[in-house]
Amino acid sequence: MDIPEGNGNPLGNGNGRARQTRPIGLGDAPNRHQQRRGIVPPPVQNHNFEIKLGMITLVQNKMFHGLSCEDPIDHLDEFDRLCDLTKMNGVSEDAIKLRLFPMSLGDKAHQWEKSLPHGSITTWEDCKKAFLAKFFSTGRTAKLRSEISGFTQRNNETFAEAWERFKGYTSQCPHHGFSNESLLSTLYRGVLPRYKEMLDTASNGNFLNQDVDDGWQLVENIANSSGSYGEEYDRTNELDLQLDRV
């Protein structure tokens, strides 16, 4: 029996010619590859520019994985320090850092970088903003702001240790929003009574009447000079408490 040609005939096109077949599963596998590059560095005109293998190894040894226990600001600090080791005339910061930064990301952070819209990041500033927006959560910000505003010196902590811990909270959250006046006031109200008295004595009566810059320097000076004294004081107190229990 003859098979009529036409729209109902899968072997013909109505013109007497065989129609090109298309396998049903044709689209189930990729037939081309386009590199997923959300971060695109600018071109470099210097033909001698090369990132040494040693530098790549250093960067990959300081990888950020996107875990909640990791600090994204610390990662940027470390990455910046490493990149400062590579300088070449005619090669911009954007060109170096945008080439290296994807190599510093692993696991969740690497997946995030691959999911960025192609070519959406072309400057180092934009890269840092996008990275922090993704990995510095609002919850982390709220927790650190709470640590700052509710700061209290621990009983077994020297003044120097308390001051370092307090500054640590502020450096971990540079966008905390507190003024220096507010920070010094919070510190003063949170330290142990003997250190509050020390601050008042050094301020001729009341630490809160100090100029902000002078107050900041005073805290630094006391922290630098009282560390060993504070440790001896705490050890003596602990020994006295132990003897009292006997």
From TrEMBL:
InterPro entries membership: Retrotrans_gag_dom (IPR005162)
Query: Region Disordered: start and end of each range?
Result: 1-44
Pfam families for the chain: Retrotrans_gag
Domain Retrotransposon gag residue range list? 99-191
PANTHER family from the xrefs? CCHC-TYPE DOMAIN-CONTAINING PROTEIN, ELEMENT PROTEIN, PUTATIVE-RELATED
Instruction: Provide the protein name.
Output: Retrotransposon gag domain-containing protein
Q: What species is given as this protein's source?
A: Microthlaspi erraticum
